[in-house]
Structures are given as C-alpha cells and as structure tokens.
C-alpha cells in the first residue's frame, strides 16, 4: 500500500463527516475538507474539522476560502485567511488549500507570502484560482517560487480532459523543476470531469500527472416527511430536500482502478 501512494495521490473533496468516512473507507489517502461544496466550497468550521478528524485517519487538507465568488480579496479578507490558516495549523490539519489573485489576473504574490509565513509544517495547495489567472505558465512558476507544494487545476477549462494540453505542459515544467520526489514540484493535481474511468485513464496516460481530485458525490434524498412546496430556502434549481454526499462505491471503484493502473506502470518500469 505504501508504494502505491508514494507516487500517486487520490484526493477526495468532502464537506461532511459522512462524506469523509466514505472517502476514508475507500481511499486510505487524503481528503480536502470544505463547507458548501455545492457552491465550490468555503472554509469549514472548527467543529466540522474536529468531528472529521475524530472519524478518519486520512490526512486532511483544509480549504481556506472566506466566501463564494472571485479570488480578489480585501485587506480584511486576507486577515481572515491568515487567521484561518493559523487556526487549522494549531488544530493539526495536514495541509491548507488557498489561492489569491490580483485584479489583473496575476498571482497575488505579496499576500500569498503573508499567508505562507503561517503555514508551519502544513503542505499548501494553490486551488483552482489558478484556472482563473491570465498567464498560467508564468503563474505556475511564481507559485513554485513561493514554495507551494501542489497546484489544483483543470487546465483552465471546464474539465481536465478539455484542459489536457496545459496540464501536460505544467507536469513537464514541474518535473523539470527542483523536486524532492518523482512527482516534481509543485505537484500538479488534476480536477474536474472524471465521470468515467476511461477519462481518468486517458488523462493519466496523456499528461503523466500522478494526482487527481474528485468529490465522487451523489444526490441523497432528504428524510423529511413533511415538505412545504411553497418555499425554497436553498439555491435556485437545487432542492433543500436533497444533499450531496461522497459515494463509497464510486470511491472504491476509482481506488481499485488506480491500484491496477499503478501496478501496470510499475510492471512496465521493471522490464
């Protein structure tokens, strides 16, 4: 098991204890913890983190995103992000997931430096704010200079498959850079659109990326028996009588596929 995940990473994005438990039983690797996944994720509460920590042995990387929307943050929001990083570091999080841009679509290098100064021993992922930047190659190199460990990206497209050319280029740059592991630095983690094993296989083979990120979510119907059809308290187009939850079977299916894929890679290397 340890060899399998030395070179590859399977990260499950979760926003509930139930999802974290389902991910843990299926992957034995890592979760990204957030709240409000339905809107792309925001910072989880301390209580949620603690409850997840009690119920899983997986490493936990915590999303630090103070609000829905763009990644241009005010001075107050930067302070909030910094204080959240400090808090989750002290709570024992294994990593922080952050991202900040300037109004011109550049990496907000100065504010990133302020945040990274508080990371301690946590690994840091630059999240999909990267997909909203103006010049991804320049941005990737700046992120590397900052000492960020991981970049989460769909290649600046809606899905990783559509963005595969950029992802392949980023992996190449990563592996050419200063690396502590075979993954390269920073590690490129693919996101979005892995709704079939064939798509994941294609991306692993084509880009040579060794990490991918997914929520493996399914819609769960509410157990509420009484329902008022006249009022909608949730997002427009999404019923409050439904919730998203990581599906254990989906996680296991992708995990089994990844194990088999890695065995094949190792067999080829040994020949």
Give structural attributes.
271 residues; alpha/beta; TIM Barrel; 8-stranded parallel beta barrel; two-stranded antiparallel sheet; globular; disordered N terminus
Protein architecture, described:
The chain is an alpha/beta fold and 271 residues long. It has a single domain (4-270), classed as Copper homeostasis (CutC) domain (TIM Barrel), CATH 3.20.20.380. 40% of the residues lie in helices and 17% in strands. It has helices at 4-7, 17-27, 46-55, 75-91, 109-116, 136-146, 164-176, 197-207, 248-270; strands spanning 9-14, 30-33, 60-63, 95-98, 123-126, 150-153, 187-191, 211-214, 217-221, 242-246. It has an eight-stranded parallel β-barrel with strand order 1-2-3-4-5-6-7-8, surrounded by four helices. A two-stranded antiparallel sheet has the order 9-10. Helix 3 (46-55) links the parallel strand 2 and strand 3. It is globular. The model is unreliable at 1-5 (pLDDT under 50).
Radius of gyration computed on alpha carbons: 19 Å
What is the molecular shape?
Answer: globular
CATH architecture: Alpha-Beta Barrel
Oligomer: single chain
Structural class: alpha/beta
Helix content percent band:
25-40%
Distance between the termini: 21 Å
Query: Which CATH first-tier class would you pick?
Result: Alpha Beta
* SS elements, strand count: 10
């Amino acid at each position: 098991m340890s060899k399998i995940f030395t070179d590859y990473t399977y990260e499950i994005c979760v926003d509930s204890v139930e999802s974290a438990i389902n991910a843990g039983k299926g992957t034995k690797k890592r979760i990204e913890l957030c709240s409000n996944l339905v809107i792309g994720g925001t910072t989880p509460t301390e209580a949620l983190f603690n409850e997840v920590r009690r119920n899983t042995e997986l490493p936990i990387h915590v999303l630090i995103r103070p609000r829905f929307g763009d990644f241009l943050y005010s001075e107050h929001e930067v302070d909030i992000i910094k204080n959240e990083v400090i808090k989750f570091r002290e709570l024992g999080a294994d990593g922080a997931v952050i991202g900040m841009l300037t109004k011109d679509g550049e990496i907000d290098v100065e504010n990133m430096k302020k945040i990274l100064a508080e990371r301690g021993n946590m690994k840091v992922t630059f999240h999909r704010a990267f997909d909203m930047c103006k010049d991804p190659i320049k941005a990737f190199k700046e992120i590397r200079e900052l000492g960020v460990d991981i970049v989460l990206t769909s290649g600046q497209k809606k899905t990783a498959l559509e963005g595969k050319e950029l992802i392949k280029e980023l992996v190449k740059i990563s592996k050419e850079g200063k690396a502590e592991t075979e993954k390269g630095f920073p590690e490129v983690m693919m996101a979005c659109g892995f709704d079939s094993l064939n798509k994941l296989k294609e991306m692993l083979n084509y880009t040579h990326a060794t990490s991918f990120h997914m929520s493996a979510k399914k819609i769960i119907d509410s157990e509420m028996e009484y329902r008022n059809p006249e009022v909608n308290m949730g997002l427009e187009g999404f019923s409050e009588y439904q919730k998203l939850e990581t599906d254990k079977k989906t996680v296991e299916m992708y995990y089994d596929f990844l194990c088999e894929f890695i065995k094949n890679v190792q067999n080829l290397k040994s020949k």
